[in-house]
Amino acid sequence: MKENNLRLVLETVRSRRQISRRELARVTNLTAATVTNLVKELLEEGYLLETGKGESHSGPRPIFLELNPLWGYIVGVELTVTDIICVLTDFKAQVLFRAQLPVENIADKDGTLDALILAVEDAIRRTGVPRDKVRGVGIVSAGPFNHNEGVMLAPPNFPGWGRTPIRQIVEDRLGIPVRFDKETQAAAFGEYWFGEAALSHVLSVCNILSIGIGGSLLLDGKAYRGHLENACNIGHTKAVLEGERCTCGERGCLETVADGRAAVRAVRQRFRVHPEEFASCGVSTEADIDFFFVVRQAEAGMPACREAVVDCARYMGMALANVIRTVAPDTLVLCGEFPDNSPLFVRACIENIRCRYNPAQERVNIYHSALGPEIGALGGVAIVLGNL
C-alpha cells in the first residue's frame, strides 16, 4: 500500500506540475498525515523539491512541491524501418537532447542495433549527464511483440527480427535498465506525459501512418492491452466488406482505405487514367507519386490528391466515431505521419468524427498531437518514468 501511495503522490505532482501538500491530500484522498510522511520520504530521497510558497488568507502559506529534475535522466528511442529517433530528458521530462538518425541503408539487424546503442551513448555523452544517473532507456518499435519479455516477435516490416530479445540485448550492452513497448502504445504514454492529455481518464490515441494504422488506450494513465496484448488494433478492423487485400490476409481492413498507402494507391490509379493532370507537377511515372507527394500536392490544391486524402479521412473518421461509441474516451488524439504532414487530413477527419456522434452527450476532446515525430520516443521516456 505504501508503494502504491508513493506512486500516487509522484504521479499527482507530475501531472499537476506544482502542488501543495494540502491540495495533494485533497486530490489523492489521502490523509494529511499520510501525505506529510510520504512527501518527507520523497524529499529525502531526492524525488521532490520544495519550490516557493503560495498565498494564504489564514494560517501559514502553503509550500509548493515539484519533481526534482536532477534526480535522474531517461533516454527514449523509437526504432522505425527508416529512422532511429532518440531523446534524453531529465526527471521532469524536459527534453535536453534530440536526434533522428536514418537507418534504411543499414543492411542487417546487427548493424541497426549497433546504431541504436550508439545513439543512446551519443545522447549521454553530448548532454554530459552523469551515467550513473541515467535511470533507464525506453525503446519502442513495431509489433507484434512480447511486452513482459521485451521480445520482438515477427514484425512484418523488420524481416529477420523474429524472436529478437531487444530489451536484453540493449540492456547488456549499455549496462542501463531497459524497457520495451509497442510504438502505438508508447504514443499514448507520450501524449499523456508530454502532451495535452495529462488529466485524461480514458485516453484513446490513433496513429495514422504512411504505412499502417494503430491504436492504444490508457485508463487513468495505465495501458489497456487486452488478451495477448492485441487491444486497439484498429487498423485491421473491417471498413469495406469486399475490399482490397490487406497485409494481414483479410480484405477491406481500415488500413486498405485510410493509411498513406491507400492515398498513394488512389492517386496512382488516377494517374493511369489521366496522366495529363500530373504534367505540371513533374510526374512522368507512377514511381514519382509517393506519400509525401500526395500530402504536399493535396495542401497545394491538386484535385486528385485532395480527393484521395479526404477519402482516407472519411474512413478514418467513421472508424474513430465507432471507437467513441464503444470505448467512450474523454480524449481522442490523432498522431502519426499522415496527420503530422496533412492539415487537410486532420480537418477532414475531425469533421467526419464529429458528424457521426453526439457532442452534447459524449463531450470528447479531439485533437491532433503537437508532439510530432518524437511522440514515440517521448513515450519511451514515459514508460521508464512510469515504471521507476
Describe the structure.
It is a single chain. With about 400 residues, the protein is of the alpha/beta class. The chain is about 40% helix and about 20% strand. The protein contains 14 helices and 15 strands. It has a 5-stranded mixed sheet with strand order 6-5-4-7-10. A hairpin with a 4-residue loop joins β11 (about 200-210) and β12 (about 215-220). The longest helix has 25 residues, at about 305-325. The radius of gyration is 23 Å and the shape is globular. The mean pLDDT is about 90.
Features:
388 residues, alpha/beta, Arc Repressor Mutant, subunit A, Nucleotidyltransferase, domain 5, 5-stranded mixed sheet
Q: What's the CATH first level of the largest domain?
A: Alpha Beta
* Mean model confidence by pLDDT: 90
What is the subunit organization of this protein?
A: single chain
How many discrete domains?
3
Calculate Rg over CA atoms: 23 Å
Unreliable stretches: none
Query: What is the tally of helical segments?
Result: 14
Helix/strand order, N-terminal first: HEHHEEEEEHEEEHEHEEEHHHHEHHHEH
Please describe the biggest sheet, giving its number of strands, its sense, and whether it closes into a barrel.
5 strands, mixed
CATH topology of the largest domain: Nucleotidyltransferase, domain 5
Task: Give a quick precis of the structure.
This protein has 388 residues and is an alpha/beta fold. The chain is built from 14 helices and 15 strands.
